[in-house]
Write a structure and sequence with these properties.
- The structure holds three protein chains of three kinds.
- Chain A contains 22 helices and ten strands.
- Chain A is α/β, with parallel strands linked by helices.
- Chain A folds into three domains: about 1-40 and about 290-385, Fumarate Reductase Iron-sulfur Protein, Chain B, domain 2; about 45-285, 3-Layer(aba) Sandwich (Rossmann fold); about 390-455, no CATH class.
- In chain A, the strands form two sheets. Chain A has a six-stranded parallel β-sheet, sandwiched between helices. Chain A has a four-stranded mixed β-sheet with strand order 8-5-6-9.
- Chain B is α/β, with parallel strands linked by helices.
- Chain B has two domains: about 1-115, Rossmann fold (3-Layer(aba) Sandwich); about 125-240, 3-Layer(aba) Sandwich (Rossmann fold).
- In chain B, helix 11 crosses helix 12 (about 215-230).
- Chain B is globular.
- By secondary structure, chain C is of the alpha/beta class.
- Chain C has a single domain (about 30-195), classed as NagB/RpiA/CoA transferase-like (Rossmann fold).
- A six-stranded parallel β-sheet of chain C has the order 1-12-7-4-2-3, covered by helices on one side.
- The model of chain C has no long low-confidence stretch (mean pLDDT about 95).
- Classes of the chains: A alpha/beta, B alpha/beta, C alpha/beta.
């Protein structure tokens, strides 16, 4: 499995100047909106602590809460399935659709279904799938994965969308008026809701107390997908279970403020029973979550409510784009989740970070993201997944820096090198620092030399 | 109170004037400060790469050099953060724990331990863009953080306010990371440079003549970016300003 | 071993040591005028708030607000509309509805949200297929914040319940805010006290 090279992908992203600057400013804008909203709530930090504590408790008793959820959901008339992994999840979805003769599926946003790579699995078996979230739809039509948890096509400018729609749904490729594009997607998608054999949603929260689940959206597509077809399938990661209805209030107050800087999503939907004459199937999916639950350094990542605030604040994510992470989950949360799926493939991601800590500060459930990034670096080094060059450089650095004599010689050599080497030798493809920056000027003497000369051998 | 002065390797090699200013400033404040001659590095570069095994002998040497002091003071927030929070590659005996506890970044030391606020010998008649490195800001909590809201406060700013002539400018993103990040600056060079360019442009646009910081590593990176871009902003470490540098 | 058993066994084995479940406080605030706070919140989210004088003919108000509407479908006693919802068999049959009219069970001042369940919507899809939605809300049914809201019995009784806060919206393309994404294009909340016992 090929290692994701985040740095290489990022250089291509940055080369598209208009795109990278827009992307950076748009997401920074969301971060600022989040700040403004949080400032309006005096109890904001209390809410974060509460949300974190509720999640930690729920995860510490997850098995009981899963059983309680299943019991209540089943009593309500839902059918509850359990999927060990992505393959089983996809098979279950397929089997449900097949049992109902459903050939067209309208689905709203679900990171879990992306994670399970569900679409190609179903499409290869003759199911037509319509992504109904506008951002997901753009990405589907462009054959690209989503690049952000909440705004999947944030890396595209309106001209890009116009070209994609022009190629696929028959709009005028030269017309990049945003209302025109949004209206076109509305009109194009609407007939699908009316005739689809099944609708699919994810879930933001699953409430054990009532056997219900909550879906937070803005466009109306999830509620159309869920309330028109006679079959509703909900894919839910096992970590989404929370104990009580009153807990939902805490999370709903934090979610949209953190994600978009709006007090609440336009629609917050609670599903407890199938509509009369219809079926509602829930697929509780593990796919590595129970494994992560047992990782002492990393299980806090399961608290995640998928708000995307960490992506919005991350200066690296804003300038490299979600696609450069090579995974469903990008940005800071992706950096700490992905290596658990595949350490080798994602071994560069924990290094796509300056460890600045802003992500941890904005996380509504207080995941210690930057601390987990640091810990992953240690695991990657321990398991020999560092690039050879880096490994050797660190070994060498350790040797030099643990010997005062070798260190002093290196300082002298560095100074001499900078003073005497011609520019072309300092600035060349081998010197990454020098590609876009000047190197420091050579000092006449090191601090140590000055100290010896001016303060004696004190 | 015996203070051991720790000078990070890049300051030792490339910016000795920052070390000099730090030493002279502490001496002005009547601190008994010495520079152990056999010091090298705190172990951060190796540890931040996950290479605890390679960091261990370096950390051991650090503790050996500084064990006899009451305080260890350094003009570097990231080194301080490493020593206090991450110096874990070696067994944590009482000597190690004491050195870790006693290590302070310069601004912290001046503000919290010496509690100094006035710098009557200093004058810096310039428009200043204050940059606080992320370790100094979020790990050492040297200032309020924009993510957390609440009243705005800043130890470096408080100290600089005691210097005549300093006029602060307001960049659009005062506490966004500048992109140095240690080895990040090399292994993720495209994003690092882009972040540095954006930071320098932000300060320049806000009218900064000088970018002042407690963190020379950040300044080294930003300076490299500004020089390549031809942006006419200058860079100086807070120790130099507090010690009386006029420019 | 079934997947269920396997998953639960692994979860049980890996669960961290028990953490306490905190009580959720109410974060009460005294609101001098719940209606006024509700109105400001709703308008912020793109909705409209009408406070007609007592005795207003709500149906006339709706038709005046939507003069082009050909199909008004109401689930309320106050408005008869063009298509009685009780006669609608399939949700898809609401596809051509211009204006839906419903009465909310309650509203939330903090966010400007209205709460609707299958009891209020009669057919859930009415709230999403209609081009526009008019929601009657008794101002006495406005609670202060979401913590109050989530203590409502409705969450334990309804098969489907939704907080609607303004019209459907998206900003997925270049961050340009579009009101009226795929659901309703507009949401109008009309302050209308509940009728006293209806004579049938």
């Amino acid at each position: 499995m090929k290692r994701v090279d985040h740095a290489e992908a990022s250089s291509r992203f940055i080369a598209a100047k208009e795109h990278v600057d827009f992307h950076d400013q748009r997401l920074w804008d969301l971060r600022q909106k989040r700040d403004r909203e949080a400032a309006l709530i005096p109890e904001w930090e209390d809410l974060r602590s509460l949300a974190s504590a509720i999640k930690e408790h729920a995860l510490s008793r997850l098995a009981d809460y899963l059983e309680e959820f299943e019991r209540n959901a089943t009593a309500n008339g839902m059918t509850v399935h359990w999927a060990r992994d992505a393959a089983e999840h996809n098979q279950i979805v397929h089997d449900i659709l097949a049992a109902h003769g459903a050939r067209t599926l309208v689905k709203s946003k679900s990171m879990l279904t992306d994670e399970c790579d569900m679409r190609p699995f179903l499409e290869s078996r003759g199911i037509e799938i319509i992504e109904t979230d506008l951002g997901e739809r753009i990405q589907q039509l462009d054959d690209e994965p989503p690049s952000h948890i909440v705004v999947p096509a944030v890396h595209k400018l309106r001209g890009d969308v116009a070209r994609v729609f022009g190629r696929t749904i028959g709009t005028d490729p030269a017309n990049s008026d945003v209302p025109y594009l949004a209206e076109s997607q509305r009109r194009h998608t609407r007939p699908y809701y009316l005739r689809a054999g099944a609708g699919m949603t994810g879930a933001n929260f699953a409430v054990a107390e009532t056997g219900s689940f909550v879906v937070c959206t803005n466009e109306g597509n999830a509620d159309l997908s869920a309330n028109l077809p006679k079959l509703h399938i909900a894919s839910i990661g096992i970590e989404k279970v929370i104990p009580r209805v009153e807990d939902v209030g805490v999370f709903v107050r934090l979610l949209s403020r953190s994600a978009l800087g709006s007090p609440i999503t336009q629609l917050t939907s609670h599903f407890r029973k199938p509509r009369p004459g219809t079926e509602l199937h829930v697929i509780l999916t593990d796919n590595g979550r129970s494994e992560r639950l047992g990782m002492a350094d990393f299980w806090y990542s399961l608290k995640c409510i998928r708000c995307g605030a960490c992506l919005n604040t991350c200066p690296v994510y804003r300038r490299s784009g979600g696609l450069s992470y090579g995974s469903t989950y990008s940005g800071p949360i992706g950096v700490i989740i992905d290596p658990a799926f595949n350490l080798r493939k994602y071994s560069s991601l924990p290094f796509a970070s300056t460890l600045n800590g802003s992500c941890t500060n904005v996380c509504p459930v207080k995941i210690n993201i930057h601390e987990q990034i640091y810990r992953w670096r240690q695991l990657i080094a321990e398991r020999n997944q560092l690039p050879m060059v880096k490994k050797e450089a660190m070994k060498m650095a350790g040797k030099v820096l643990s010997s005062p004599k070798l260190y002093r010689a290196a300082v002298q050599a560095a100074n001499a090198g900078l003073e005497y080497l011609p520019r072309f030798m300092i600035y060349n493809p081998l010197n990454a620092w020098g590609r876009q920056r000047e190197v420091p000027k050579a000092g006449r003497q090191s601090f140590r030399e000055w100290y010896l000369a001016n303060r004696g051998g004190k | 109170m015996k203070v051991g002065l720790f000078i990070p390797c890049y300051v030792d090699a490339f910016f000795p004037e920052v070390g000099v200013a730090t030493l002279e400033l502490l001496e002005r404040l009547n601190v008994d400060v010495r520079y152990p001659l056999n010091q090298t590095c705190c172990g951060q570069p190796m540890a931040n790469s996950g290479c605890e095994e390679d960091a261990a002998p370096v950390e051991k040497l650090f503790v050996k050099n500084f064990a006899s002091f009451d305080y260890v003071v350094t003009p570097s927030g990231s080194c301080t953060h490493h020593v206090r929070d991450h110096l874990t590659a070696i067994p944590q005996d009482p000597k190690v724990q004491k050195v870790r506890r006693s290590t302070f970044e310069l601004v912290e030391f001046l503000h919290d331990v010496l509690k100094v606020r006035e710098f009557p010998w200093a004058r810096f008649q310039h428009k200043v863009g204050l940059h606080i490195g992320c370790a100094t800001l979020r790990a050492l909590r040297s200032a309020s953080m924009s993510e957390l809201g609440g009243p705005s406060w800043s130890k470096p700013r408080t100290l600089l306010s005691g210097v005549e002539g300093v006029e602060f400018v307001n960049p659009a993103r005062p506490d966004e990371c500048c992109g140095f990040g240690g080895t990040f600056s090399v292994v993720e060079e495209p994003v690092s440079a882009k972040m540095g360019y954006d930071k320098v442009h932000d300060h320049a646009k806000a009218g900064a003549e000088y970018i002042v910081s407690p963190d020379m590593s950040c300044l080294m990176h930003q300076k490299g970016c500004a020089e390549r871009l031809g942006v006419k902003v200058k860079f100086i470490h807070i120790a130099q300003v507090l010690n009386g540098a006029r420019a | 071993m079934t997947s269920r058993d396997e998953i639960l066994a692994r979860v049980r084995r890996n669960q961290p040591a028990a953490r306490e479940l905190p009580a959720v406080p109410g974060f009460e605030q005294a609101l001098p005028s719940p209606s006024r706070t509700f109105k400001a919140s709703l308008e912020r989210m793109g909705g409209t708030f009408f406070e007609p004088p007592p005795g207003t003919d709500i149906e006339r108000l709706v038709r005046k607000t939507f003069p082009e509407a050909k199909v008004i479908c109401s689930a309320t006693v106050e408005v008869a509309g063009d298509r009685p919802i009780d006669l609608v068999r399939e949700p898809a049959a609401l596809e051509d509805v211009d204006v839906g009219v419903v009465r909310a069970r309650f509203g939330v001042a903090e966010t400007g949200s209205v709460w609707l369940s299958e009891a209020e919507l009669k057919i859930n899809a009415l709230g999403f297929l209609a081009q526009h939605l008019v929601v009657l809300l008794d101002p006495a049914d406005i609670v202060a914040n979401l913590h109050d809201a989530y203590r409502h019995r409705g969450f334990f009784e309804a098969g489907y319940a939704v907080f609607m806060t303004g019209p459907s919206a998206t900003a997925d393309i270049e961050g340009v805010l579009i009101r009226g994404a795929q659901g309703i294009r507009s949401l109008t909340v009309v302050a209308a006290p509940r009728a006293a016992a209806t004579l049938s």
